Amino acid sequence: MAGGRGRATATLIAVAVVLGWLVVGGIAGPYSGKLGEVSTNDNASFLPADAEATRAQDLAAGFTEKQTTPALVVYERNSGITDADKQVAAADAARFAQVPGVVGPLPPPIPSKDGKALQVVVPVDGTDGDQIISVVDQLRAIAGENRDGLTVDVAGPAGLLADLIEVFSAIDGPLLLVTLVVVLIILLVVYRSPVLWIAPLLAAGMSYSLASVFVYFLAKNDVIKLNGQAQGILTVLVFGAGTDYALLLIARYREELHRHARPWDAMKTAWRGAAPAIIASGGTVILSLLCLLLSSLNSNRALGPVAAIGIAATLLVMLTFLPALLVLGGRWAFWPRVPRQDQADPQAEHGIWSRIAGFVARRARPVWLVTAAVLGLLILGLPQLGVTTLGQTDLFTKRTDSVAGQEVIARHFPGGTGSPATIFTTQQTARQVAQVAQGVPGVASVAPVTGAQQAGPPDPNAQPKVVDGKVELQATLADPPDSNGAERTIRDLREAVHAVPGADAVVGGFTAINVDTSDASARDRNVIIPVVLVVIAIILALLLRALLAPLLLIATVVLSFLATLGLCALIFKHLLDFPGVDQSFPLFAFVFLVALGIDYNIFLMSRVREESVKRGTRAGVLAGLAVTGGVITSAGIVLAATFSALAVLPLVVLVELGVAVAVGVLIDTIIVRSLLVPALSYDIGPKVWWPSRLSRSTRDGDDRMDAGSHRAH
């Protein structure tokens, strides 16, 4: 009778929890499709306030009535521009000027020196992404694509931004669909059940909905910034990490169903066993992501809180909603492989991992030495990584209109036409600064901004406009504004004009923003990476109640991270033919790979410690590896597959990040967690728990006897 009442109470609690979450899901669900409405893919500076390019932007506000973003409409005919082509471009320019959002009047088309191209500079009002994409769409509709051999493309900063926003606008649909399909297929393979996959997938969807509603309102009220990159990563992170946590809990629940008659009792025991590792894992990822708030770049600071909210929502759902679903499903949720109450040793269901554990026991030292050496060899690929600022033509995996236009500009005009560097200096030193700037290699021309300044070729003899004793000079660069050559020119230009006495010169513009972004990215790597490592070390020390084990785990994950970068360098260069990786890539890759990679070590070593208390350290290592091997490997495959879904987006930066996380997670699960960490821990023995009392265990001999019986088994 008491058992019946207890069973009824447990069922009522589970039903109440599930119904409560379904109500929450009904309210929050629609917001997952609204994130694009609050995503700010605008052209605003991501730079810190003290960056030179930021100071230049502030000074520029006094020289223009409106802040504009230039679109460059380029016309090309390989046989040479005709008079009819010039009339077409002039007529188009007149129609461009009538488009709402275009700051007119526009200057006449600019011919190239080789006579094969024309260029119309179209200033677009403001930097708001939605406004710019609307204007660019209308410019492209007016210009068309090909007029009897005359090709027309819309490029420049406005064209590039419009193409980027178009890519990010596809995140809500295709990326989410691909992620769901990938997770579904893997769950079907892992569980071989037509029913069980529903619970983790439903819980992951609930996590995404809950995260979306928080991100939506925080972004709408300008508490956090949401951009397309953060939105894409949120999707794959929530489904990947959520499925990982679900796999761990379900595996532990299945074990306990062999020991308990009632699912409720099995879930209570499983929850107590798995929750600390899941919470430690999620907490590690959350704190690591929040370390991005230390970044000097707004783009990095935007990603940290958004992704951290996703993980927090996932933890909450997976530790409440998912257990209730599983309890209601009972044993039959696992059909056709229904676990019976037979008091079976958990290791009995993990034959292959028991054999791997036996192999580790027999060859512990050679295993960790060889695996460490293999990872060390992969690190040799690092010099080919090519950290750089990706140029406009390198950003996309497909050829967009803005990329085609930039290629035309590079062929026929000075690369910096339409996007000059800006130099602000005192009125008294303006002429000297202009002369010095003109002498810098890579500077094609220098001219002042005048009171009647129009877009187009500047007049070097015009009288400069003076604002608060300052003059603005525009330096057209010989190289494309997003090229390495242009960045070198900006650094040389700054060095030259800063040396003019009394000039107080400030250099800004599109290329200068890239330079300062690159410098800020390097600074962020140097600051954030050590902080993340310290945070992870503290969490591991608290979880494992030891100091040596956390240090060893961090060392293995850092080794895995460097090996991943080395392997990715070879993949990007020789398989995918990418020009390099963006400046932000190493930091993002580190945060995700180390935070997520340490997850699997947390799952393993928390179980190893639990088993070590009962069996002794070496036997505990083998038991922990045998029991967790299958579920952690499955979790790693899920996370790798979900991040690889980023490859559906035609953006090199996200494809590279997706590939890196997928490769890194697989290295972590297959090599580091399956072989390196267990072999190293087994070889060290009880001292791995130093300085805790467990490190002074007198069961070292028992350990070896248990290990021997394990090998015999």
UniProtKB/TrEMBL annotation:
<keyword id="KW-1133">Transmembrane helix</keyword>
<feature type="transmembrane region" description="Helical">
    <location>
        <begin position="616"/>
        <end position="641"/>
    </location>
</feature>
<feature type="transmembrane region" description="Helical">
    <location>
        <begin position="167"/>
        <end position="190"/>
    </location>
</feature>
<dbReference type="GO" id="GO:0005886">
    <property type="term" value="C:plasma membrane"/>
</dbReference>
<dbReference type="InterPro" id="IPR000731">
    <property type="entry name" value="SSD"/>
</dbReference>
<comment type="similarity">
    <text>Belongs to the resistance-nodulation-cell division (RND) (TC 2.A.6) family. MmpL subfamily.</text>
</comment>
<feature type="transmembrane region" description="Helical">
    <location>
        <begin position="551"/>
        <end position="572"/>
    </location>
</feature>
<feature type="domain" description="SSD">
    <location>
        <begin position="554"/>
        <end position="682"/>
    </location>
</feature>
<feature type="transmembrane region" description="Helical">
    <location>
        <begin position="231"/>
        <end position="253"/>
    </location>
</feature>
<keyword id="KW-1003">Cell membrane</keyword>
<keyword id="KW-0812">Transmembrane</keyword>
<feature type="transmembrane region" description="Helical">
    <location>
        <begin position="12"/>
        <end position="31"/>
    </location>
</feature>
<feature type="transmembrane region" description="Helical">
    <location>
        <begin position="307"/>
        <end position="328"/>
    </location>
</feature>
<feature type="transmembrane region" description="Helical">
    <location>
        <begin position="647"/>
        <end position="667"/>
    </location>
</feature>
<feature type="transmembrane region" description="Helical">
    <location>
        <begin position="197"/>
        <end position="219"/>
    </location>
</feature>
<feature type="transmembrane region" description="Helical">
    <location>
        <begin position="274"/>
        <end position="295"/>
    </location>
</feature>
<keyword id="KW-0472">Membrane</keyword>
<dbReference type="InterPro" id="IPR050545">
    <property type="entry name" value="Mycobact_MmpL"/>
</dbReference>
<dbReference type="Pfam" id="PF03176">
    <property type="entry name" value="MMPL"/>
</dbReference>
<feature type="transmembrane region" description="Helical">
    <location>
        <begin position="527"/>
        <end position="544"/>
    </location>
</feature>
<dbReference type="InterPro" id="IPR004869">
    <property type="entry name" value="MMPL_dom"/>
</dbReference>
<feature type="transmembrane region" description="Helical">
    <location>
        <begin position="367"/>
        <end position="386"/>
    </location>
</feature>
<protein>
    <submittedName>
        <fullName>Putative drug exporter of the RND superfamily</fullName>
    </submittedName>
</protein>
<feature type="domain" description="SSD">
    <location>
        <begin position="163"/>
        <end position="328"/>
    </location>
</feature>
<feature type="transmembrane region" description="Helical">
    <location>
        <begin position="584"/>
        <end position="604"/>
    </location>
</feature>
